[in-house]
């Protein structure tokens, strides 16, 4: 049976039991216990201790909306708010122009920008999957599926017992993101 036919058959079974909560729960449990492979089941990335502080600072900067310019030879980092970078684009009145000029003297520059909205959205979804409180988890899924998901997610999390868990999770994801970029660019040598 081809892939499309299998999918149609599965959807047919789901439509037949859509009003039966118990059967839907059984199907859901089966999918998540036997079939679905959550990315988060993978081992977390182990960031070497000597780079932890450096990576943490960059992750916090991109979370605040800064572009980070890194000199891989010296590990110097210059971060500039993306709004300032975009507003002045080469203008001599740019208050960060001296810092930007400094990067021109570097042999190589690694640039790390804030996450795109779809990347941030993926982090939010991954977090929701980890929330142990089923009621809150359902509310979070609901806000992610409707208008203004970022604002509504923030509001719901800020008024929950999972606020700090969210900040810790997001920080960890950002640190892994930064580490992967720097690793790809060959900044880390064993």
Polypeptide structure, described:
The model has no long low-confidence stretch (mean pLDDT 85). The protein is 61% helix and 8% strand. A hairpin with a 4-residue loop joins strand 1 and strand 2. A 3-stranded antiparallel beta sheet has the order 2-1-3, sandwiched between helices. With 190 residues, it is mainly α. The chain has 9 helices and 3 strands.
**Element string (H = helix, E = strand):** HHHEEHHEHHHH
How does the helix and strand content classify structurally? mainly alpha
Give me the number of helical elements. 9
Rg result? 22 Å
Spatial shape: elongated
Major pleated sheet: 3 strands, antiparallel
Helix amount, in percent? 55-70%
> How many DSSP E strands?
3
Percent in strands: 5-15%
What number is the mean pLDDT? 85
Instruction: Report strand order across the widest sheet.
Output: 2-1-3
**In whole angstroms, how far apart are the ends?**
49 Å
List low-confidence stretches: none
Summed up:
Helices cover 61% and strands 8% of the residues.
Characteristics:
single chain, 190 residues, mainly alpha, three-stranded antiparallel sheet, 9 helices
Q: What's the arrangement of secondary structure elements?
A:
Layout: H1 3-16, H2 21-35, H3 49-63, E1 66-71, E2 76-81, H4 82-88, H5 97-104, E3 110-112, H6 117-130, H7 134-144, H8 149-158, H9 163-184
Antiparallel strand pairs: 1-2, 1-3
Helix pairs in contact: 3-9, 6-7, 7-8
């Amino acid at each position: 049976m081809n892939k499309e036919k299998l999918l149609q058959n599965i959807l047919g079974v789901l439509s037949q039991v859509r009003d039966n909560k118990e059967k839907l729960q059984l199907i859901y449990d089966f999918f998540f216990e036997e079939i679905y492979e959550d990315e988060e089941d993978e081992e977390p990335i182990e960031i070497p201790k000597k780079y932890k502080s450096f990576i943490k600072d960059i992750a916090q900067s991109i979370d605040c909306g800064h572009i980070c310019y890194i000199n891989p030879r010296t590990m110097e980092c210059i971060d500039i708010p993306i709004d300032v970078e975009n507003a002045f684009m080469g203008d001599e009145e740019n208050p960060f122009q001296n810092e930007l000029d400094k990067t021109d003297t570097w042999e190589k520059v690694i640039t790390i920008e804030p996450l795109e909205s779809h990347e941030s959205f993926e982090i939010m979804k991954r977090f929701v999957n980890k929330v142990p409180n089923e009621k809150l988890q359902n509310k979070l899924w609901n806000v992610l599926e409707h208008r203004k998901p970022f604002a509504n997610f923030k509001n719901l999390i800020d008024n929950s017992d999972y606020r700090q868990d969210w900040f810790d999770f997001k920080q960890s994801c950002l640190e892994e993101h930064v580490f992967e970029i720097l690793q790809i660019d060959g900044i880390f040598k064993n």
